[in-house]
Structure formats: structure tokens, C-alpha cells
Amino acid sequence: MNIDQLIDIVKAAATKMCTDHFDVSQKGGYANIVTSSDVAVQEFLCAQLAEALPGSGFLCEESDEWDTAQEYTWIIDPIDGTCNYSRGIPQCAICVGLQHADAMEMSVVYLPMTGELFHAERGRGAYLNGKRISVSARPFADAVMCTALSVYHKDHARECAEIILDTFMQCNDVRRFGAAAPELCYIAMGRCEMYFEYLLSPWDFAAASLILTEAGGCLSRLDGAPLSFTQPSGMLAANSVENLDRLVGIVQKHL
Questions:
Q1: Dihedral sign, CA of 154, 158, 162, 168?
Q2: In whole angstroms, what is the distance from residue 233 CA to residue 222 CA?
Q3: What are phi and psi of 38, to 5 degrees?
Q4: Degrees, nearest 5: CA angle 95-97-98
Q5: What is the Cα–Cα distance from 101 to 91, expressed in whole angstroms?
Q6: One-character DSSP codes across 63-95
Q7: Is 128 exposed, middle or buried (CB count within 10 Å of its CB: 0-12, 13-18, 19+)?
Q8: Span 129-158, mean pLDDT?
Q9: CA geometry: angle 113, 180, 76, nearest 5 deg
Q10: Residue 70: what pLDDT?
């Protein structure tokens, strides 16, 4: 299995996403929805990837089973930013990452509505549409932070708002695109510099995390500890260790 094969499979899966005819259902309220396109994309990816890498496991959003006991595990979000997708907002992506020995080996994040395809292999850099990318060198005062108010856990909205306000008063500005993987890729390409989210599932960040680190960025849990790719976690990311450390300090002050 190589990165070109993975890119081809993801692009083919996007044909299941690029349609105006899909059904929407709730998974526990208006904030957490699934579309028929999510299911179609995931089924296609799992079938193709199982054939391309026999014996591999899967950790997918639209599935009740987490098969992570294999040597290689595919971590898949068929559509990151489903709410955006359901409303025609272009920040929505197919995310596929391959984990081996607690590390991400290769990944693709594809935004069909914008035509942006990010990919990375461990130790080989990160790319956008075939062109190598890197994080910006902007300091904290000139940084733009991507963030959200924890839509699935609104009981923590006040703490999130305090963190966002505190950071906003020290950085340049904040953005809320509504999809974790594209936002992490925006840091990787130098479009933004920081990221804060109170709680994410591994499929939200696994694929994009490799793209970010291969582009020179860094990320951690809310306390600064390393992330796990098989457990939900709060997450921080930045274009530099200095900016990440400062962001950790702000978050810890409020949590």
C-alpha cells in the first residue's frame, strides 16, 4: 500500500459525497447528525482499504465496532464537518489515516468542494495538491486560532468561551470553520497558526495530525501531553512549540 493508492481510493470515495441527493438523520440531537453520504463513503473506503491492505483494522466514526487490535489500523472520518456538508458549506473533508505502532504512517484529507487534497507520509513531508507545504513563522501576537464552543458538550461552553476570549486578547484573531481536520490542515499550510477544541474523537484529528507535524507544526492534549490516536481527547495545535506552550498555559488557567 502506498500513498498514491490511498489518494486514488479517497478520490474515488468522494464521488459518493459529491451529490445533492442525501438523507440526514440525527445521532442524538441537531448538533450531531449523519447523512447517507457519510455511510456510503465509509462503506466504500472500508471495502477498498481492506482489499488494498488485507488484515488491517478499522476505527471509523459511523461504526459501533473499533477494531484496533491489528498491526495496522485505518482511522476514518468519512465526512469531517457533516453539518457543513449538509448545508453546502465547503469546509468538509474525507479523512483517512493509517496507524502503525502508535504512530501515523500516511494520511489523506480531501475537501472535494474546494478541490484541496492534503497528504503526508511519516518522514516525507506534507503536501497540498502535490506541492509541499509548511507552517507559518508567525508569532503568538500575529496568530489566528481556529476553535469552537464544544457543540457536543455545551455544559463546557463557558470554560471554552473564557479560553477563546483570553487567547483572542493576546493573538491576532479567531476563526470557526466547523471541521477539525481542515482547520489542522490550514495550520499546516500557513493559513492559520493555532487550534483549540475541548473534546474530539480520534477520527477527527488522526489523519490531519500527521499532515500538521510533517509540515513542521505540533499538537498535544489540553495539558500538553501527547495525543492518543485511539481515545477521545481535547486538543491543542500550533505552528511552533513556543505558541503551543503558551496556548497550553492559557487553557490550563481556565480548566
A1: positive
A2: 8
A3: -55, -50
A4: 160
A5: 31
A6: -S--B--SSEEEEEEEEE-HHHHHTT-S--EEE
A7: middle
A8: 94
A9: 80
A10: 80
Mean pLDDT of 191-209: 97
Res 63: pLDDT: 75
Q: Are 82 and 90 in contact (CB under 8 A)?
A: no
Give the 3-state DSSP-derived string for 18-50, with helices as H, strands as E and coil as C.
CCCCCCEEECCCCCCEEEHHHHHHHHHHHHHHH
Residue of 80, 66, 98, 83 lying closest to 231 (CA atoms): 66
CA 114/CA 97 separation, integer angstroms: 20
**What's this model's pTM, rounded to 2 decimal places?**
0.95
Residue whose grid cell is 507544526: 217
Dist CA 24 CA 19 (whole Å)? 13
pLDDT in tens, 51-91: 999 999 999 988 755 666 689 999 999 999 999 999 999 99
Q: Calculate mean pLDDT across residues 134-139.
A: 98
Strand order in the sheet with 173-175: 173-175, 144-147, 194-200, 233-238, 218-220
Alpha-helical regions (H) of the chain: 3-17, 36-52, 82-86, 157-168, 180-188, 202-214, 241-254
Lookup result for grid cell 498555559? 249
* 154 or 5, which is more confident: 5
What is the grid cell recorded at 158? 463557558
